[in-house]
């Protein structure tokens, strides 16, 4: 079989793949990893994305679903192909899980709609399964439920230790992963539109800085998720803080620890790729602009090196941003450029950093969700331009693994 024939076959297959992506089909195969690379449909996959935690909440009200549709449309027009959102809301006034094992169907249909709209617009989803914080319930709600069932728990960190709280979490994970989408007819576990599951947003256990509590919890939950869904990728939801396994790496932390261990946590079987978050303005509020930029560069570079040399897994910068309540839009653009340049440089060199998702996307008419970190594309032309440029650069790297067959 001659090389010219192979080149022709490869060209035809590439054209078919590109046509599918152009038509918004983000579900032709499940995302996988190959060493430090993401792979979809036989291609290395490079992503430019965003966070929109509010999707399920807004889509649960039929009158507000247009905002979800608009966000996906605007994101896709700016070339974005990955979104991270909450698949949890425990207790409170707008719950998905009203009480352990009891669900609000309207909220579940909101999540169904979100997944269906993502597929329609060619966007992959990372769905987070719980929260470290009290927003949308989080570990505090699970601890409260366990106390109401007779458990004697002393702090929110007992979420990671209590057998009953862990059982509640597992039951909820199973309910979400097994959910059959009322719009697509597919169970979530069978839908490749979902890029990955996330165990919990920004896990922290300050009552055990040794890291043992979180390591045990993550190991148990990763094994459980994989036991009921072997198709999808899984990540922890970490910010990236270093711990006891490589104590010399703690010098890269922003002056404190939270009970996580970036290296050890990402070596857990079943955890497919690593994540970090980046908020120099929050983590080092007393420092100047140049100091924050220096921290950001070293923070990203250190984790890229770890993923390349130690973990041998892909790296996603799953959250980053800068508040315009304390900085100018120009300063925010500087941060976006720095993150994007680091990701593109790594990806171009075949390194592990191949995707980033900023915090966070809003659309017009959502002023009540603004926190200073929001980006409304139509109202932020300079930032929108930077995002589009990164999308084009990353899309240019989405070459088939068999691309050498296309060369003369």
Task: Provide a brief overview of the structure.
The chain is an alpha/beta fold and 408 residues long. Helices cover 40% and strands 14% of the residues. The protein has 12 helices and 15 strands.
Can you walk through the features of this model?
With 408 residues, the protein is of the alpha/beta class. It has a single domain, classed as Glycosidases (TIM Barrel). It contains twelve helices and 15 strands. The strands form four sheets. The protein has an eight-stranded parallel beta sheet with strand order 10-9-8-5-4-13-12-11. α11 packs parallel to α12. The longest helix is centred in the C-terminal third of the chain and has 23 residues. The chain is globular and about 50 Å long. The N terminus and C terminus are likely disordered.
Describe how the helices and strands are arranged.
Elements: H1 3-22, E1 32-34, E2 37-40, E3 43-44, E4 47-51, H2 55-59, H3 65-77, E5 82-86, E6 97-99, E7 102-103, H4 105-120, E8 124-128, H5 138-148, H6 163-178, E9 194-198, H7 212-228, E10 233-235, H8 262-266, E11 274-278, H9 280-283, H10 289-311, E12 315-320, H11 329-348, E13 353-358, E14 361-362, E15 375-376, H12 381-395
Parallel strand pairs: 4-5, 4-13, 5-8, 8-9, 9-10, 11-12, 12-13, 14-15
Antiparallel strand pairs: 1-2, 2-3, 6-7
Helix pairs in contact: 3-4, 5-6, 6-7, 10-11, 11-12
Structure characteristics:
408 residues; alpha/beta; TIM Barrel; eight-stranded parallel sheet; three-stranded antiparallel sheet; 12 helices; disordered N terminus
